[in-house]
Design brief:
Helix content: 25-40%
CATH topology: Hypothetical upf0131 protein ytfp
Strand content: 25-35%
Largest sheet: 8 strands, mixed
Structural class: alpha+beta
Number of strands: 10
Shape: globular
Number of domains: 1
């Protein structure tokens, strides 16, 4: 399709990958559905289901085209990825209870009765799915049934179709809770790290006083990331997502 619009990720402001710039997490998301094709995001003209593809709900950086391109390019994959914008009922965006080796504290889905969010469903072929599964080492891919099955979840597309269900990556360490004991919501990486460091002297001792120091130290030391993950639990900051299977 040639409509005269520069649809490269750079031109659209979607090229930055949080894996390379942790404080940008979860990265820039598209404003509408699209087809990720190499370095471009094209209009998505057709509708699901997509044959031989697996629907996966993106909670964090997997909705960022720059991040997906980065993951796929690492394995020489440039095949298209449909990214479908959906209105999701029953799922909210929490905070994973682990420090990622790439330098950030990522998002993780939590059960959110009555919560409605606009998120993206990415449709992966078998090879793409294997790459993303491998990149989500701290997560289990869990099936969430949609409407029509007595489910508390609902996935509405812009075309009016209801998806029968989607997969989602649930962090096996659990999620961080807020001061009232319920799952904390992810406000973006810089804001999150500022809050976490301000609340925990032990976390500051490990990772420094600023988000920049946190990311730099985490990216340089796998063992430090593991210590940070253990610290979340030791300080009683961890709760269940409600989506474990």
């Amino acid at each position: 399709m040639d409509d005269g619009v520069d649809r490269t990720l750079k031109a659209l402001g979607l090229d930055r990958a949080p894996r390379e710039d942790p404080l940008s997490y979860p990265g820039a998301w598209p404003t509408e559905s699209g087809l990720l094709l190499g370095d471009r995001l094209l209009p998505l003209d057709d509708h699901p289901p997509y044959a031989n593809r697996t629907p996966v709900l993106a909670i964090g950086s997997n909705a960022c085209p720059g991040q997906l391109r980065h993951k796929m390019a690492e394995f020489g994959i440039d095949s298209p990825v449909p990214m479908l914008k959906v209105r999701v009922t029953g799922v909210d965006v929490g905070v994973s209870a682990h420090v990622s080796r790439v330098g950030y504290v990522s998002a993780s889905p939590v059960k959110g009765p009555g919560v409605v969010r606009e998120l993206f469903v990415t449709w992966f072929d078998a090879r793409q799915l294997a790459v993303v599964d491998a990149s989500e080492g701290a997560y289990d891919r869990v099936w969430l049934p949609g409407s029509g099955s007595g489910s508390e979840f609902r996935f509405d597309t812009d075309s009016g179709e209801l998806l029968p269900g989607v997969y989602v990556y649930v962090n096996r360490h659990g999620v961080l809770r807020d001061g009232t004991g319920v799952p904390r919501r992810h406000p973006g990486e810089r804001a999150l790290l500022t809050e976490l460091l301000g609340e925990s002297a032990k976390l500051r001792k490990l990772f420094g006083r600023t988000p920049e120091e946190f990311c730099e130290r985490a990216r340089a030391d796998r063992e430090l990331c593991e210590r940070g993950t253990r610290l979340f639990r030791e300080e009683g900051l961890v709760t269940a997502s409600g989506l474990e299977r």
